[in-house]
Amino acid sequence: MTLVPDTSAVIDGRVSERIDDSDGQTVLIPEAVVGELESQANAGYDSGWSGLEELQRLAALADAGTIELRYVGRRASEGEQAAASEGEVDAIIRDVAADNDATLLSSDIVQSEVAKAKGIDVTYVEPEIDSDGELPIVEFFGDETMSVHLKTGTKPKAKRGALDGMSYKTIDETVSTEAQMDEWADEIESLARSSSDGFVELSEPGMTIIQYEDYRIAVARPPFSDGIEITAVRPIAKTTLDDYVFDDRLRERLLEQERGVLISGSPGAGKSTFAQAVAEFLTDNDYAVKTMEKPRDLQVGDDITQYTALGGDMATTADSLLLVRPDYTIYDEVRKTEDFDVFADMRLAGVGMVGVVHATRAIDALQRLVGRVELGMIPQVVDTVVYIEAGEVHTVYDVTTEVKVPEGLTAEDLARPVIQVADFETGTPAYEIYTFNRQVITVPLDDEAGSDTGVDRIAKQEIEREIRSVARGHVSVELTGQNNAIVYVEESDISYVIGKGGGRISDIEDRLGIDIDVRTHEDNPDAGGAATNGSGGGGVEAEPAGEIVQPEITARHVVIRMDGHVGETVEVRADDEYLFTATVSSGGDIQISRGSAIAEELEDAIDRKQQITVIPA
């Protein structure tokens, strides 16, 4: 008998187990199989290494004279290898079986059926499944176990306890060996592939994401990780909205019309648990609800269809959902820019959206939209923010927009669109978000005694900027009231700042809507009679040196790269002279439109070979 195994049969080890002691058995290994196994092993797939181990077992049987082993045919070309998922390599293997009048051995049902259709003798063997139908690591889970963490060379650990008292602890004193970890990982994957209760969500070199029943399991292997690691997570509670304490108007808000809601909180705070409670609540009130998840691990009823990334792309999933027309879609989790784009597109198309977002404060969830969604559109995309802490609803914000003068400013010509973030229960304004000097700023409205508010800091920076444009020496600013400030400058700069007949300082006051008193540094009680060394300083502490940057000038922008400082507010200086204040975008840069006054100052400083530095604001 002559056998030609395909890649699936070699990987599963189904060739050597079919060898008996009779003489005359010949095994022909297609070179296309060898090439595919080699490619998988080089890419870090365990399947490639399993297949190579089976070939070594067959070589040992050939050395013992039990079988005749030959390698035949040709290797797949680069193009054929790239199209392996479309059957190009399988076709080469079938040709080898047909040309040698051999029996094709396969664990691939599609390959077997195609071979039968082409008149090739084929033997199909079910994929080997070692599991007895139970998750092999289920013994590590108790009633209050949220996650189990296993790794080669370490003791098993778990996160256990209530949501408000979770602890990470060792649960077994036995150190996990590599062989044991490998066995657990193989059994988990086999169980997920063979059971109707499980599926493989993601399979990449070194990382497999599996969903089995209500367990989400991540299996990491070298070279992606430094050892085999298994992390299994499951929800420890399924709740309804009745289990949460909050204003009943939130329920009414969700039902009166489709909304844009962000559910935020720290990892493990209970965001997804609350999201599934919202999904069930909406379904029970006759709304059509779908989910978008990767991986799909929300524990929702059968009436709610759970979708994942179609072709690896949530945008494609969204296009399909728009044809289905759900009333609400639960998006778990919204993290990357493309996720926010999809969320916004679906919301603006009229679909109610509930997004789950990682954030350490309620306002941080909303700020993640800044720079990703046009500022004026944010309240149309998100009108409600729910912050979860320790499994409870901690904060709910109502998000609206209004054209007004921002809180703390007075000049009527400073009116602009302002996003107002208010406490949902009391209606008390908590934050305002608006553009100021071409930068988007978030200003807290709960002033603390003895500390500058966001408006105070902005006012100081803008006053200093205006004065620096006419003064030659050091400048510092002191706010003495909501609409009053004292500016301290060098004595030689007094006349330049005030201008002829007070005209220059009057123009600055009119632009800013603030009354300014100009004095020398000697009049500054905090400076001790010494010249100050920057805004708001008393001449005592030296300014931080800052980070030296090299701005890039493009056709439309001057760009300052600030990787690692996303969301931070910084000051940009030239040779330690203040230029402007900016917030680093989600892309890790500051972009200033060319032609603006700020860009012209920055370009002029670059042309003069001045050192450009950035320091925290």
Automatic annotation (TrEMBL):
Listed InterPro entries: KH_dom_type_1 (IPR004088), KH_sf_prok-type (IPR009019), Nucleic_acid_metab_PIN/TRAM (IPR052041), P-loop_NTPase (IPR027417), PIN-like_dom_sf (IPR029060), PIN_dom (IPR002716), T2SS/T4SS_dom (IPR001482)
Matches recorded under Gene3D superfamilies: 5'-nuclease (3.40.50.1010), P-loop containing nucleotide triphosphate hydrolases (3.40.50.300)
Domain called PIN: residue spans: 1-113
Coiled coil: none
Matching Pfam families: KH_1, T2SSE
Region described as Disordered: spans on this chain: 519-543
Record's keyword terms, sorted: RNA-binding
CDD domains the record matches: KH-I, PIN_VapC_VirB11L-ATPase-like
SMART domains: PINc
Classification via SUPFAM superfamilies: P-loop containing nucleoside triphosphate hydrolases (SSF52540), PIN domain-like (SSF88723), Prokaryotic type KH domain (KH-domain type II) (SSF54814)
Keyword Iron among record annotations: no
Entry's Gene Ontology molecular function annotations: RNA binding
Domain of life: Archaea
Similarity remark: In the N-terminal section; belongs to the PINc/VapC protein family.
Record-given protein name: ATPase
Biological source species: Halonotius aquaticus
Lineage of the organism: Archaea, Methanobacteriati, Methanobacteriota, Stenosarchaea group, Halobacteria
